[in-house]
Design goal:
CATH class of the largest domain: Mainly Alpha
Structural class: mainly alpha
Number of strands: 2
Radius of gyration: 34 Å
Number of helices: 9
CATH superfamily of the largest domain: Winged helix-like DNA-binding domain superfamily/Winged helix DNA-binding domain
């Protein structure tokens, strides 16, 4: 009984039963050309028919190994990519795009930041040496003033002077992890205070 075209059954040919036990051999024999080579080699054994079957199996097995390798590579690459993306998202949270509160869905934190010429560099070309200089609303100004001196300093180095966490750590004499944590906590604190208003 054949389940589908190309499906071979050792019930019709009992001498092939041993070849259907192993899944790789079973897959190899699903190809009608390979199946024919094996049956020819069993019916008329010779060095030539044996070599033809061996060569066909070596090619098949090499292809299967390559497919398995590529499948594993794709699988683990996608896991690594996902892990890296989650790490990036956790470090660089998009809190500026989030609404201030549920009842004010149209107002985001980024809307409170001035857009003088729609160019961030134009804001920094002016006399902006502190975060307070950038505040355009009293709510934003008060929120920035409520931060600790250390938090304001880290945010100033990062947003006004464009330094990375590592560069800030070198300047201030603390670890990069401490700078990252301080920056993250300061941004969360600003977000909470602006949402409360």
């Amino acid at each position: 009984m054949y389940k589908k075209e190309g499906d071979r059954s050792y019930k019709k040919e009992p001498e092939l039963k041993e070849y259907y036990v192993h899944p790789i051999l079973r897959t190899f024999l699903e190809n009608s050309g390979n199946y024919q080579l094996l049956t020819d080699a069993l019916k008329k054994p010779s060095l030539q028919t044996k070599e033809l079957v061996d060569q066909a199996f070596k090619e098949f097995y090499s292809e299967m190994r390559l497919v398995k390798y590529i499948s594993s590579l794709i699988h683990y690459s996608s896991i690594d990519f996902d892990r890296k993306q989650r790490k990036i998202r956790s470090k660089a949270q998009l809190i500026l795009d989030q609404p201030l509160s549920e009842d004010k869905e149209n107002t985001a934190i980024k809307d409170l930041i001035p857009a003088a010429n729609s160019e961030p560099s134009s804001l920094l070309e002016e006399d902006c040496n502190t975060l307070e200089d950038l505040a355009t609303t009293s709510a934003l100004y008060n929120s920035i003033r409520s931060l600790t001196e250390k938090e304001r300093s880290v945010l100033t180095w990062h947003f006004i002077h464009g330094l990375t966490d590592t560069e800030i750590a070198r300047k201030t004499g603390v670890s990069q992890q401490a700078v990252t944590k301080t920056k993250r906590n300061a941004l969360k604190k600003l977000k909470r205070q602006l949402q409360a208003m």
